[in-house]
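Q: I'm writing up a methods section and want to include an example of the input and output format. Could you take the sequence below and give the corresponding predicted structure tokens, formatted cleanly so I can copy it straight into the document?
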Amino acid sequence: MNAVSAPRALPGFAFAALFATTLATGTGNMGLISVMPAAGRVLGISDYLIASIFSLSALMWAITSPLWAARSDRKGRKQHILIGVGGFIVSMLGCGAVVLAGLQGLTAAFATFVGFLLVRSTYGMFGSASAAAAQAYVAERTEGQQRVRAIAGLGGALSLGTILGPAVAPFLILPYLGLSGPMFVFALAGVAIFIAVAIGLPSDRSRGEAVATVGSSGGWAIWSNRAVRPYLIYGLAMSCAQAGNTYTLGFLVIDRMGLPPAEAQSAIGIVMVAGAVAGLIAQWGLVGLCGMMPRALLLWGSLLAFLGNVLIIVLPGFTMLAGSFALLSFGYGLARPGYTAGASLAVGESGQGGVAGAVSAIAGASIVAVPTLAVGLYEWQPALPFLAFGAVMCGLLAMSAFHPGLSGKRTEAAIVSCER
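A: Here is the clean output for your methods example:
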């Protein structure tokens, strides 16, 4: 193996910096999602428009992720992680300012909606740079089962962020700032993470240039790779289902509790935290400690997410809602590192940037239209989105069991080869 293709070790402090980046963005974004249903109803913005607020940002994310990933192949990963964190900071500050203006009566409801839509899009354009770069940084320095665990570790950071975001957001609704308070606090946290990454993460510019000389499957070309494509298709469908569940949850809690929007905020946080804890246990427990293979993760993840959607429909009450959401989140927590690691192990080192860009693009593409569609279905009939996403996960369960591209032979062979 030559010097370019031999992976470096992943130092603990480097992983800690990447972990902190993922944790901060996960905390901020889920905290924002948790407060927006209440903010929208206080501002007089319809549920449908609130769900669509994130669509433009998600579209920008899906478009720019492969471009940032290809650029990071040439220029190195660290600077793109910093670009992404910078986009997060600017977006949170801007969103806080727009929502505060609406709460203070300085802008009309529709103007607040348009302002939020445009400001949030900056996160899609620039925040996407860090997600792909962080995954590629890890993949280039790990092999086999170690890579599965490292990717699951980053996924666990995201799950931990989704615990902290909804949990702390109600306490950040501050005097004068109101529901915009969490956004300003998350922006300040982003500044601290930016400094930590700038200081603590080793530079890799020379390595990025070396990888680019070997050849890269960056941009959209990675979708033509027959070994990777089944994992990406699975990931796109699964991410759409998870996005629909997440963005519908706040409205479901408000309606099932029968409380005013602001008073229901704590209940929304409780359910989101329950789901995030379940996802964290899945990623750090079954994946990190037990070392499950990608195919097993896809099978069990699909099954549990399917069952969770069904139980949300058939079981009444707030407690049953929290338990059912935790179950489906546990399933998604298994499935996400399954398809991500499977795709990464299906290609060589020169394809890691392309895989990371595709995985990041999937995260954005899944919330371009799905949340709006899900809330539209919910307004028509509350059970419909959960029926639809349960059917998606049932289809993915069959795909995991019978699709030859997800048989697990290629990725398991790669793991065995690396461990030897």
